[in-house]
Amino acid sequence: DGGITQSPKYLFRKEGQNVTLSCEQNLNHDAMYWYRQDPGQGLRLIYYSQIVNDFQKGDIAEGYSVSREKKESFPLTVTSAQKNPTAFYLCASRNPGPRNQPQHFGDGTRLSIL
Amino acid sequence: GQQVMQIPQYQHVQEGEDFTTYCNSSTTLSNIQWYKQRPGGHPVFLIQLVKSGEVKKQKRLTFQFGEAKKNSSLHITATQTTDVGTYFCAGPFSGGSNYKLTFGKGTLLTVNP
Q: How far B41 CA lies from chain A's nearest CA (Å)?
């Protein structure tokens, strides 16, 4: 089945530690996105990538980094500079087009601080 | 920057009652999307509206796009327990590419059986 796979489902981070969240898609989509969701909040865009080897900062990029070396993969690193990393992280992808194509989301990763 | 506001933030209804959530943008939107997120799940695309004044229906769900393309609504007739979840609207950044969406904070719907 085609889809977006995020791993791990749950992740715990120690103080001062960097952690990487995985996002893989086999939908052959060009564009990929990372969102952060806090309780009672909407989805806030962290980073997005429209094509391999290119990515742009979203609204809350500080303390995060990404790479896009392959079309299928868009990993997100939560660095120690992100002082409040506890949240639900969602990866999404879509195919660009003349209209706003819908985004397809993975099941998410819940990150907590130990 | 573009803002998308949704009201109400929460809505609790008895099963069988109707429900409506409203979405307002600070700028004119070229289109608007609606998503549903079940508790513990991920957002799932419901529908996209493109034309001014457009109305689309999906069974008990009715979606409207305002004439000025700055507001939208989702109405559910005779709610069921399966309707529980958070409903988000989302629009593209004004003047930007179609690759970025601004999401509202969502309306959490709970249904008492």
A: 6
Q: How far is B45 from chain A (nearest CA, A)?
A: 6
- Selection from B71, B16, B75 nearest residue B46 by Cα: B75
- Measured CA to CA, the distance from residue A75 to residue B42 in angstroms comes to 18
Chain A CB contacts of B41 below 8 Å? 107
pLDDT in tens, A14-38: 888 999 999 999 999 989 999 999 9
Convert B42-61 to b/e letters by CB count within 10 Å (16 or more is b): bbebbbbbeeeebebeeeeb
Average pLDDT, integer, range B63-86: 97
Per-position DSSP letters for B34-68, written without gaps between them: EEEE-TTS-EEEEEEE-STT-EEEETTEEEEE-TT
Distances from the Cα of B13 to the Cα of A3, A18, A61, B6, B111, angstroms: 34, 43, 37, 18, 5
